[in-house]
Amino acid sequence: MSEPRKLEVLRAIVEDYVHSREPVGSKALVERHHLGVSSATIRNDMAALEDEGLITAPHTSAGRIPTDKGYRLFVDQISAVKPLSAAERRAIQSLLEGSEDLDDVLDRTVRLLAQLTNQVAVVQYPHLSRAVVRHIEFVQMAPRKVLIVLIADSGKVEQRVIDVGQELSDDALTSLRTRFLTGLAGTPLTLLPQHSAAVVAGCAPNERPAAHALSKALEALSHSSREDRMVMAGTANLARSNVDFPLSIGPVLEALEEQVVMLRLLSEMAQDHRGIAVSIGRENPYDGLAEASVVATGYGPDATAKVGILGPTRMDYPTTMAAVRAVARYLSRILGP
Fold first, then answer.
1. Which H or E element spans position 127?
2. CA 240 to mean position of chain CA atoms
3. At a CB cut-off of 8 Å and minimum separation 6, what does 107 contact?
4. Is the Cβ–Cβ distance between 119 and 237 less than 8 Å?
5. DSSP assignment string, 140-152
6. CA torsion, points 198, 199, 205, 211, in degrees to nearest 10?
7. What is the rounded distance in angstroms from the CA atom of residue 58 to the CA atom of residue 66?
8. Burial class, 287, CB count within 10 angstroms (exposed 0-12 / middle 13-18 / buried 19+)
9. pLDDT exceeds 90 at position 337
10. pTM for this entry
11. Most buried residue, 133, 147, 182, 205, by CB count within 10 Å?
């Protein structure tokens, strides 16, 4: 069996099974695909693919379905990720470009990706270890209550209301805001506590109680900005795929709920020469995802955070890879400088 024909027969089996959910027989392959050989030859080819562990027969079925190894070979042979249609690109652009802030952008991203792929969409918040302070705002809410807003250059906005422990005039609060903004603008979030303490030390003694309270609140906001977390949408799509999870859909849902599992998997997935990372079935280190595949790619200025989808191993890989990559590119454009 020649290598090109082996790949062609495997491709036909994968495509038919993804489309029909039914095991694929040699007769169907001959009828639906112009492979240029007889049914007997196709049967021999299928036997060879089965010997290599690329396809298997579920129970007593006459047809065959791809194995994880078969999907892997199929995915690796997709030489180029196909572009999305103009209509799909316009839909992505119009939905994402109206976003107000990072939370809104990422929420729209996962909902859009879930709709495009009919799978579960997940996106990591950008890794903010290198994020810096873009802006700080203090707003008087009551005589001792101040709203603090911390904006990172990643677009992340954190805010909270605190009691500063003393009454401040508008001028005094404006003066403090200027001090903190001057002292902290461009500071990495990881270094904010040290720089903030220096700002407090430079304040007049009568301003220090309020300055100390503001400093502590900014420090807390910088920590919550750096939390590694993700957003997801489309879990209902899994329920419609329960035929694809014969063992149980429970472990897959648990992995999604236990965000640390998904975050670790996304962080560890290595992208290939096409800029896409694909983890198939038992390649996933977490047992609960043994019947699932994850397709992801990096986005943002340094492309360290990932956006992707999780679904059954029986998925339309070419279309899913194209959607994930297109959405990641728009996301990077929106979040770029």
1. none
2. 21
3. 231, 233
4. yes
5. EEETTEEEEEEEE
6. -120
7. 10
8. exposed
9. no
10. 0.71
11. 133
